[in-house]
Sequence to fold (165 residues):
Amino acid sequence: MYLYFIQAGGIEGPVKIGLSLDVERRIMELQVGNDKQLRLLKSLEIPDKTAKRVEGEFHYFFRHTGLRGEWFQPTPFMLRHIDSLIVERGEIWDKSRSFDEWLSGSDIYRKISEADHTLQVVIGEYMKDGNFNAVEYVVEEILDTIATHTPLGEKKLRWKIKNIK
Fold:
């Protein structure tokens, strides 16, 4: 499966972010109903099992520039970002920034930091009170939530956590 970025018209024309097994064919299909010349900005081969999620993440990331459906008004940032995307081991990366730079500026970092702080406070209170059963319960709930809401199975998740230490 390919994640593609197609632009209609010149540099200020709208950008379509979508998925296709055959990008060239998709461009021809879209061109039939579009009076502007379409050009491929970039296509990235990604695993089928993650394609819809990844496409959705890009739609969400650029939602503030959304025009209609999968079409977005380009910004200089968007065009630079698309240009710098690469695929490594089935994952999409922005080669212009390190992962740490990306993470520190992302919304997910703020959310993780808030959740981490809350967990530290809650677990710290239980530890101070000597309520180790409550600490174990909180940890088990976190593991269950992660195992339920991620592609990782529970055994694989527990193995990863065990081997982090």
Remarks:
- Strands lie at 2-8, 15-20, 38-45, 66-68, 71-72, 85-88, 91-94.
- The helical segments are 23-32, 48-61, 76-83, 99-104, 107-128, 132-149, 154-164.
